[in-house]
Amino acid sequence: MIKLDDRDLKLLSVLQREGRITKNDLAKRINLSPTACWERLKRLEDNGVIEGYGARLSSAAFGPVSTVIMQAELGSHRSSDFLRFEAAIAEIPEIVDCWAVGGGVDYFLKFVCRDVDSYQRLVDRMLDADIGLKRYYSYVVTKAVKATPAQPLEAPGGRSGEQA
Fold first, then answer.
1. What CATH number has the domain spanning 59-140?
2. How confident is residue 155, by pLDDT bands cut at 50, 70 and 90?
3. pLDDT band at 154 (very low <50, low <70, confident <90, very high)
4. How far apart are CA 59 and CA 37, in angstroms?
5. What is the torsional sign of CA 53, 58, 62, 67?
6. Is 6-46 a CATH 1.10.10.10 domain?
7. Are residues 74 and 106 in contact, defined by beta-carbon separation less than 8 angstroms?
8. Residue 65 confidence (pLDDT)
9. Which strands, in side-by-side order, build the sheet including 133-140?
């Protein structure tokens, strides 16, 4: 695990909010020379702290969509069963997030589909494919309250989210 100082955290915080910021502007924002800022950025990339860069796309820009959260349980719990299920869902583009979880449930999956009927047809194909899915529960998202890809970072001089 790489040790992050206050400047690293500030750099990461700025990049999470403003991924297209120029390197010169980033250097100014964290009070470093462009060369020193670039060296920090490269170190964070090389050490896997920064995994990549991308754009957040508006689902609404592509027409109406339905977001569904699935709670999934597998029929068997051997290592090979988990690997088979995970390999299968990795190939389904409508599944945009998947989390393996502990306690009574095996996975939570986030689907983005054209509509609920499309979602159900996809689930039917998953069941027919015999990927180990035993039981599932579906939760249709009615409203996005908060969605951010940002990682909470400890702010210099205090904990993240702490009020002054």
1. 3.30.70.920
2. low
3. low
4. 34
5. positive
6. yes
7. yes
8. 92
9. 95-100, 107-113, 66-74, 133-140
DSSP state of 106: -
Between CA 46 and CA 38 the distance in angstroms is 12
Alpha-carbon span 106 to 73, nearest angstrom:
5
For residue 114, give the DSSP letter. Answer: S
Cβ neighbourhood burial of 87 (10 Å; 0-12, 13-18, 19+): exposed
Contacts of 59 (CB under 8 A, 6+ apart): 65, 67, 112
Please spell the DSSP secondary structure of 48-99, one letter per residue: TSS-----PPPGGGGS--EEEEEEEEES--SHHHHHHHHHHHHT-TTEEEEE
| CB contact at 8 A, 137 and 70 | yes
Q: Structural domain boundaries of the chain?
A: 6-46, 59-140
CA distance 71 to 49: 30
Q: Which of 119, 98, 101, 92 is nearest to 110 (CA)?
A: 98
Mean pLDDT value across residues 38-59: 90
Dist CA 70 CA 107 (whole Å): 8
